[in-house]
Amino acid sequence: MNTQPALVELSDAHVVHKARSGGLFTRDRVYALTGADLTIAPGETIGVVGESGCGKSTLAKVLVGVQRPTRGTVSFRGRDLWAMPPAERRRAVGGSTGMIFQDPSTALNRRLTVRHILRDPLDVHDRGTRQQRDERVRELMSLVGLPRALADALPGQLSGGQRQRVAIARALALDPDLVVADEPTSALDVSVRAQILNLLLDLKERLGLALVFVSHDIQTVRRMSDRVITMYLGRIVEESPAALVTDRARHPYTRALFSATPGLLDPIDPIPLAGPVPSATRPPSGCPFRTRCWKADGTCAEVMPDFSVASAPAHRFRCHHPVQEDESTRDLVRRSDPMEAP
User: Fold this and answer.
1) Which among 134, 186, 315, 326 is least buried, having the fewest CB atoms inside 10 angstroms?
2) From residue 132, how far is each of 60, 122, 126, 185 by CA, in Å?
3) Number of Cα atoms under 13 Å in the Cβ half of residue 147
4) Where are the domains of the chain?
5) Distance (Å, rounded) from C-alpha 117 to C-alpha 114?
6) Could you tell me which residues are beta bridge partners of residue 210?
7) Beta 227-232 vs 45-49: how paired, if at all?
8) Can you say how many angstroms the Cα of residue 251 is from the centroid of all Cα atoms in its chain?
9) Which residues of 284-310 are buried (b: 16+ CB within 10 A; e: fewer)?
């Protein structure tokens, strides 16, 4: 386990948005992130998984200072990010973090050349001389495998994979300590995804980056990460070492997620979940997963469980009735299916 001081630390972070509802002057509260506690150490990779709308992207934005929490703190190298003067916060966040967005076709300015896109962070933060900035642009293009001939190309003249390489290079322009990749391959063709994932892994190792990798592709998250965070309806419900998340996850939702991914060597049916994810404007009382969980009872409806610690280090979960560590997912499939229950 990484024993270095925390690079970024969230403490009881909440994000609540206001969304227009039926009336002209009425707004619902959208609970996008609730009570998030998370510590990221230098050089480690954290994967974040969960269904659409579970708060993964909100968590990513909070980590890099794009989204201010409604309540709670975001500490960067031990200092409260949102207690800093604005100019200092911009320097701390802009100079030490980078973000790679889901769709490079919308994340890049269509009117700027690759050279201009990569120079922009250097210009904004006044890094080096003009000559040094030009040299840094060449370094960045080489780092992500882009031919130098593309420096004067516009994003519309590039392939999807090339655009994402530009987005990655831009995130690395200021030599950050932390890069957050929010679904970085979901908009790409299947044939290109592996190239981009391998590039991210290679850059992480070469540059010593801390990486937060947000994705629906949970098997890829497992392979890339040191730790895996499971989110449900704005809450972190489990945090597990990646090596244990497939077979020894304790939260029923985590087991259900991983059972739904096809296994080529030992395929199993997915654990059935009843109904859709509840609305983030009116989350269920108690445990938010209870409306879809086969283990839920009255206690789950009344009380949100605190974190419990598993036997393995750095493994914790929030569940009143957790899956046993030695219980196979195949057995869970049978027990959770009402047609097969004894």
Assistant:
1) 326
2) 31, 10, 11, 31
3) 5
4) 8-225, 249-336
5) 5
6) 178
7) parallel
8) 19
9) bebbbbbbbbbbbeeebeeebbeeeeb
**Among 3.40.718.10, 3.40.50.300, 3.10.20.30, 3.10.20.600, what is the CATH number of 8-225?**
3.40.50.300
pLDDT tens sequence for the chain (342 residues):
455 679 999 999 999 998 766 555 567 899 999 999 999 999 999 999 998 889 999 999 999 999 999 999 999 999 999 999 998 998 888 889 999 988 888 889 999 999 999 999 999 999 999 999 999 999 999 999 999 999 999 999 999 999 999 999 999 999 999 999 998 888 788 889 889 999 999 999 999 999 999 988 888 888 899 999 999 999 999 999 999 988 899 999 999 988 877 654 455 677 888 888 899 999 999 999 999 998 999 999 999 999 999 988 899 999 999 999 888 777 776 666 554 443
Nearest alpha-carbon partner for 287 in 273, 274, 279, 298: 298
Residue listed under structure tokens 């994402």:
164
